[in-house]
Structure formats: C-alpha cells, structure tokens
Specification:
heterodimer, A: 322 residues, mainly alpha, two-stranded antiparallel ribbon, 5 strands, B: 203 residues
C-alpha cells in the first residue's frame, strides 16, 4: 500500500507525537519496510526532534531562579503591606510634600508683595504722566476757554425754581381720571421676552404688506373703457367670436337667470370646437351682450395665459398683434 | 513539647495545582512558592527559547510570576494554572520580542555568545550573581537551531517549543496557544517540515 509524501510526513509527525492510531501505524511501518526513502524520512524526522531538543537544552540553576523570583514577590508583598499597614507614613509624606510646595525656597512673600506694589506704582506713574502731557494740558485749556462756565447766581436760581415748583403744586387742578390711568404700565423693553420684542415689528410689517396689497388690488380695478386683459376671446352674442384682448383661447358665456345674482357659465375651447350659442325660438342668441370686459377676478385667472397651447397651432389666432 | 512545623508543599506530588492555586488565592504565600518551584524552569526555558537571552528570560519569568501572583484570584479554573501561567509567559516574551523588533534590537544571545546579553542589558539583574541559565551544550548547533526556530511563525514556534522541546501535553499546549489540539498537531507538523528544511545539513 503506497503513501504520498504528504501522507507519509503527516503520519511520521503523528507517530513522533504519539498520536498515530494503530491502523495508520501499521500502514506507516509497511511503507517504511517497502521504501528505503520512507524509512530515511522517518529517521530524519526523529533526528530532527532529537537535535532540536538536545541542542537547545538548558542548564538552569533553579535555586538561583527561585531566589530571584522570591525576592521580586517579597518586594511586592512588602510594598503592599506597607500600604495597608501604615497609611500614616504616606500621610506624613503627603504633608511633607504639601509643606514643600507651600514653603518652596524660591517663594519670598516680601519680594512678591514688593513686585506687585512696584507694578501698581508703575501704572499710577503712567497715568500721571499722561495727565501731565503738554498736549493734553493744551486741550484742557482750550476747552475751558472756549466753553466758559457761565457766572450763575445760585441763590436767585434756587429761589426761582422753588417758587415755580410751589406755584405748580397749588394752582394746578388735578387732571381728570382717564381710562389709560387704570392701565398697568407696560413692562420696560429690557424686561420683555425676545418674542415679545420680535413680534412687534413683524406684526407691523405684516400689516403694512397687507395694506399695500389691498391698495394694489383696488388700483387694478377697471375703470370705464379700460380694455380687458389679454388672452380672452369671447363670442359675440350672435355666435361670432369676439376678442377682449390678446387671447389665446375662446370663451363662450351663457348667462343663466337675470339680475345681480345671475350665473355665468363659460366654456373654454378651440375656436370652432365650441358649440354655437344657445338660441331662442326667434333665432336670437340668449347669451348676453358683452359687458365691456369680464370681471376682474376672471381677468386675473386668464391674465397669465400668454403662451398658446400647442393644439391651437393652425387655428386662427385671435391674439392682437403687438 | 513538639515544635509546630508549618506545612510544606515542596515535593508533595499529591497536591494538585488547583489546591495550590486555591490556597494562594487565600493569601498563602507558601502555596504560591510551590507553584513557582513547579513552573519556574518551564517559564525560564520557554522565555529563553523565544527570546534567546538569559537576562530577558529571567526578567520575563519574574514578571510572569508577579502577574500570576497578583491576579491569581481571577483564575476561574485553578486546575488550568499551567496553561494560564505559560500563556502569560509566552505573551510577555512575544511582547518583548516585538518591542525589540520595533527598536531594531535583536540581541542574539547571551549564553550562546557569553556575556553579551549582560552587557546589553547593563547588568539589569544584579541579584543573580552568576548566569543561572545557559545552554547545556557548547556546540555550534545550538545557535543554528535557535536561529531556525526564530524563522518559524509564532504559533509554529510556540508549538515546537512547548510540545517538542518542553514535551508538554498537547492539551496544555492547546490551552497556551488558545487553539484546539488538532491545531496544535498541525502547527507542530508544519513547524517540523520547515525546521527539517532549515536544518537539512544536520538531519
């Protein structure tokens, strides 16, 4: 039974480890018996193990090693015991360190105070020097002469003021009670919250914008013969298409009812595709006469239709030439 | 009146590692000393074969025992002290080795070359007057084998050192390497193949 080199090496290694099962051991023995190379390989591995083991064999003085390790452990035990047994020793060391820190040789209180005092004196001297500077002195003189203090008779001034105040207190009638007197004074700006202070200008701005918008809408109301907006094409009462401006589509209006509350229905569509206006028995269209323009709201709706839809291509344009 | 003699564990094979660990965890220093006696040789040997330096090996052994001593209460399975302790030794040794590589220092060997290691370390361990660890043979084969071991990947080197050289059981080697027994066998097999190639002049 032959074995590959890998199988042989693996079996030899297991044999040397003492973990080769009996069947594989018999197989290895058979291979070694049959092949001198296999036997040589086994011997070389055995020799390798011996060499590695013997060549690196150590002579160890175990008593010396034990003594060395014991010293290390004893030192550790001693340090540990010192920590547990004698905390006062460490407290005294801490105190000594603290004393050294406080009474450091380089610390000299008198010198420190003197240095601080000299710094303060230097600052004072600098200020005095600035005051005594000739330019400053000249400016001071100029101010005094240019703005002389008026000669005031303080006694007469005091009398005048006192008389004025006493006359106001006796002659003046008490002011009538007003509603605003009952109102608690508003908190000072500094005491208001951030939102209280921020909302006031915002609300004022919003009110201003609203007023401008309303004014703008009123200004856009049509007056008299103002032409209608662009983009609206309306049929005439007889069915013909009329224009109310640069329109892009066609609008058919059908009034329902009369008076102020009448309803206007309208259709928007391609010219010619819109059904003709409804006619009465006399052949007259029941659509109303154009009123000179649609309501402002309708004009607003169609105002922005300035690009004809693609389906309007080929249809007669009702948009007035610019 | 008989003198009370404190119990000793020295040379008492009936006392297991688990019992010693339990007593050491209770603060019994003599129990830990017995553990030191049992494993100091392996600690120094494994560290030495990983580092090739006597002083470093002794330092690592001391550090490993100190770590084991201060952390023995964290050992969940007292009977597994051997694998746990040798894992400390191997981790410390490999860390030292990596630190050396980073510092471009690979001092090769003290006992191989005599006093070079003591010079490099500046005689750090003055407590040991003489070199307590040295190779048993003075042939040139020792440095060659050590150099060949150094060329193996970490796992294979550790497997060869612990299993082939120190002849530890595969189960304990698996605990140290934190792998399966089958993986240990594989690492040993691969390591053997490479060593055979590296040392082909001698086999």
């Amino acid at each position: 039974m032959s074995m590959t080199l890998g199988e042989l090496e693996l079996a030899i290694s297991a044999l040397l480890d003492g973990s080769l099962p009996l069947p594989q051991r018999a197989r290895l023995n058979a291979a070694c018996d049959a092949s001198p190379e296999a036997r040589a390989l086994l011997e070389s591995y055995r020799k390798l193990d011996t060499i590695v083991r013997d060549a690196t064999a150590l002579q160890i003085d175990e008593s010396a090693v034990f003594a060395s390790i014991s010293r290390t452990l004893n030192a550790h035990d001693a340090a540990d015991a010192q920590l547990q047994r004698d905390p006062a020793a460490f407290a005294s060391i801490d105190a000594a360190l603290a004393a050294i820190a406080v009474n450091h040789p380089s610390y000299d209180e008198d010198a420190f105070v003197a240095s601080v005092q000299s710094s303060i004196d230097a600052l004072h001297a600098e200020r005095d020097a600035a005051d005594a500077h000739p330019e400053y002195a000249a400016v001071d003189q100029l101010l005094r002469t240019a703005l002389p203090v008026p000669d005031i008779d303080e006694a007469s001034l005091h009398t005048t003021i006192t008389n004025s105040l006493s006359g106001t207190a006796t002659d003046a009638a008490p002011p009538p009670m007003r509603l605003t007197d009952r109102i608690e004074p508003k908190p000072a700006t500094a005491t208001r919250s951030f939102w209280q202070r921020a909302l006031r200008p915002l609300s004022a701005a919003a009110l201003l914008l609203l007023a401008v918008g309303v004014a703008f809408q009123i200004a856009r109301q049509p007056v008299g013969d103002e032409p209608a907006g662009p983009g609206i094409v309306a049929p005439s009462p007889n069915g013909a298409t009329g224009t109310t401006g640069g329109g892009t589509t066609e609008l058919t209006l059908t009034p329902q009812g009369t008076g102020i509350g009448r309803v206007i229905e309208f259709e928007v569509g391609r010219p010619g595709a819109i059904a003709p206006p409804i006619q009465n028995a006399d052949g007259r269209a029941v659509t109303s006469q154009p009123s000179g323009g649609f309501s402002p709201s309708l004009r607003e709706i169609f105002r922005d239709i300035d690009t004809p839809p693609t389906w309007l291509d080929g249809a007669p344009s009702t948009r007035p030439a610019n | 009146m008989s003198k009370i003699v404190p119990p000793t564990f020295h040379g008492t094979p009936g006392v297991t590692d688990g019992m010693l660990v339990a007593r050491a965890a209770d603060g019994d220093r003599r129990a830990f000393d017995e553990l030191v006696r049992r494993y100091q040789r392996q600690a120094v040997a494994v560290s030495y074969r990983l580092l090739g330096n006597t002083s470093d090996a002794l330092e690592i052994a001391q550090d490993a025992f100190l770590k084991a001593y201060t952390n023995i209460t964290t050992l969940e399975k007292p009977e597994a002290f051997c694998g746990w302790f040798l894992r400390i030794v191997s981790n410390l040794s490999l860390n030292r080795r990596r630190g050396r590589k980073r510092n471009q220092q690979l001092p090769m060997d003290d006992a191989f070359g005599g006093d070079s290691a003591a010079e490099q370390t500046g005689g750090r361990d003055r407590s040991v007057e003489h070199d307590p660890v040295r190779l048993a043979t003075s042939s040139e084969l020792g440095p060659r084998v050590q150099a060949a071991l150094d060329e193996l990947p970490e796992k294979q080197r550790m497997a060869i050192i612990l299993f082939t050289i120190e002849q530890m059981p595969q189960k304990d080697v698996a605990e140290v390497l934190e792998c399966s027994v089958e993986a240990v066998k594989w690492h040993v097999f691969q390591g053997r193949k490479k060593l055979k190639e590296l040392l082909k002049d001698y086999v």
